[in-house]
Write a structure and sequence with these properties.
Blueprint (H helix, E strand, L loop, with lengths): L3 H15 L4 E6 L5 E2 L13 E7 L2 E6 L4 E5 L5 E6 L8 E7 L3 E6 L6 E5 L2 H9 L24 H6 L9 H11 L12 H20 L40 E5 L2 E5 L8
Parallel strand pairs: 2-9
Antiparallel strand pairs: 1-7, 3-4, 4-5, 5-9, 6-8, 7-8, 10-11
Helix pairs in contact: 1-5, 4-5
Length: about 270
């Protein structure tokens, strides 16, 4: 599933094609890909896109009158910026046609993602980010200090989106490996120093991944159909059974929140 770096890369490669460009029309091929079904997206015709924005794994496109589209990529979602004459791929559900001749095509074979319409950015913000924590690229130590004495296991809390928005299985495993923290560690037993280090490495890992266009394991591509290059830098995710790149001990795997979790039993001890 695309996480913060992948969604940010989609935003960065999408933005030059849509910014300050007038919408010529919106074609909804599959109604149930839109929320709400029957949303008045044709009202965007004639409007100009003035901003793109991301929070966590959610991507927003905002028009000059405030109308907003929120894109959630789910597990297999794609945003393609192509010329109008290019043949449509299977599972293309919505096409935003621009006066420049470019089409922004949303496709999703598994349909775990979708497109949400809001009449204003304020309504989109309230609905889509109200239950989320701060964006993972902008977290500070103070954002997690409430964990001292709290309940919950570390990886589950990081995946929940309520404490930090944008992390998924890949970047949680990578961050915990780098911070030398066990994924089943009780958050209430973390020291202030460990929280400081965790915040630092989360931002470090994400910034490196963003700089390399995200991680392509299977399907992910940016808006220009380019894969991410961070996979070759992974230290934990997908390396179960292989030697730890720090101590050499074989990395172990376990299931947490139905996710395969990789960690080093020597470097990441549970305390």
């Amino acid at each position: 599933m695309p996480e913060l770096p992948e969604v940010e890369e989609v935003r960065r490669t999408l933005e030059p094609h849509v910014m300050n460009v007038r919408v010529a029309g919106v074609e909804v091929v599959r109604e149930d890909f839109m929320t709400p079904i029957g949303a008045p997206v044709q009202r965007l015709t004639g409007r100009i896109v003035v901003r793109t924005w991301r929070h966590g794994k959610k991507l927003f496109c905002i028009a000059d009158d405030g109308q907003t589209l929120m894109i959630h990529l789910g597990m297999s979602g794609r945003v393609d910026c192509v010329s109008a004459g290019v043949k449509r791929e299977l599972h293309t559900h919505v096409i935003v046609k621009l006066e420049s001749g470019t089409e922004v095509r949303l496709r999703d074979p598994r349909r775990f993602g979708g497109l949400w319409y809001y009449p204003s950015f304020e309504k989109a913000l309230a609905k889509e980010t109200g239950g989320l924590g701060p964006d993972a690229l902008e977290i500070t130590t103070s954002d997690l200090m409430h964990w001292r004495g709290a309940k919950g296991r570390l990886k589950q809390r990081l995946l929940s989106q309520k404490d930090i928005a944008g992390l998924g299985n890949i970047y949680v495993d990578e961050s915990l490996w780098l911070a030398k923290l066990h994924p089943r560690q009780e958050v209430g037993r973390l020291t202030s120093e460990q929280i400081v280090k965790l915040v630092k490495v989360i931002r470090q890992v994400l910034e490196r991944a963003v700089g390399m266009g995200g991680t392509t394991v299977r399907d992910y591509r940016n808006a220009l159909d380019q894969p991410g290059r961070f996979a070759k830098r992974l230290k934990a995710y997908g390396r179960g059974g292989k030697p730890c790149l720090r101590c050499g001990k074989p990395l172990k795997m376990l299931k947490i929140a139905s996710r395969t979790t990789v960690y080093c039993p020597l470097c990441q001890r549970c305390r």
